[in-house]
Amino acid sequence: MKDLFFQTSIHGLYGFRFRNCKSYKNRLSQIFFKPTFKKRLNYTVAGYSWNSLEIQPKELSISVIVPTYNRAELLFHCLNALDCQQLPPSESFEVIVVDDGSTDGTPTLVQQWNKQFPRVRLLRLSHNGGPGRARNAGVIASLGRLLVFVDSDVIAKPGFLYAHWKRHRESLGCLSVGPVYWIDHISQQTRYRFRWWTDASRAFFCTSNAAVGKHLFIKSGMFDADFQKYGWEDLELGERLRNMKIPRYFVKQAIAFHFKPAWTISDLEKSMEQERQRGEMGVLFYKKHRTFRVRLMIQFTWFHRCLWLILSLFGMINEYSVKCWVIRLIRMKQYGIAHLLWSIVRNRKTCETVFDCWKSS
């Protein structure tokens, strides 16, 4: 079997290879779900038209939903990790990659992957509508009884799917989440032992590493399509699942690594725009769930406002006054100090945006 090679453009020209095709070929015998592809069909889901492949109607154990947008390089590592997952012989799973209008080599990547591993399915949306709508479209197209949500920049440790499957087999009608470790390099996937102080999964429902029964997800109303900007769509769904009194289990064996690359200078402006959108969506979140818990989540309290005012030295530390210092720290590869300094600016931006949007509404 020859190596597969294709190229995509993300910050330049990249090439991806299935280098050890022999091991991949051997693992093909372990794939229990091998759908028969017949013809392309056109569908419309949540206002979007998309193309899929008709498969034989067969209910599976797990459907892994992976939304993505212009992340072909990271998606390669995500799919590689999911391909290494194993379930008991009587169980099977599929991976649905929802391309939310990408303009890079994402479709080519998934199509080439599908030729070797048919359980990886591509679902293309006509234009970008946010991760919430993309996940809803993936759920509608799914065949599994259990839905597992991961992001395209998340790398699952071997045994990840089995841990979620085992938890739901023992406790029907529950929600399971697992630890999420932040890494800034792919080679850092060595921190396998669970330590609560390094776990980044604090939310009731976090789409970086969560599993829920499909019937419960649909009953909850799925992701709210009103969240079309950055942030809070998964936590808002988590509040609805919490109100449904669904038991939540933390599965520490279901480990996932969330890739957070080292900062670059171009990330500074992007991060400020994300915080502005996070503040706007935070107000929308609170309008739907007017609880004190949500106010704490979105930093809509006078404690948070005073805290970030003091930490920013009453406004002296702002995006204009410290930007040159942060750029200098990034060039010196002092990413930790740069992140700490810029996080003060970002959090104050989020907090002030929440108060401003609430006042204007």
TrEMBL record:
Pfam families: Glycos_transf_2
Source species, domain of life: Eukaryota
Residues spanning the membrane: 302-322
Keyword Transmembrane carried by entry: yes
Keyword entries, A-Z: Membrane, Transmembrane, Transmembrane helix
Domain Glycosyltransferase 2-like, first and last residues per copy: 63-194
PANTHER family with a match to the protein in the record: GLYCOSYLTRANSFERASE, SLR2126 PROTEIN
Protein name stated in the entry: Glycosyltransferase 2-like domain-containing protein
Native species: Galdieria partita
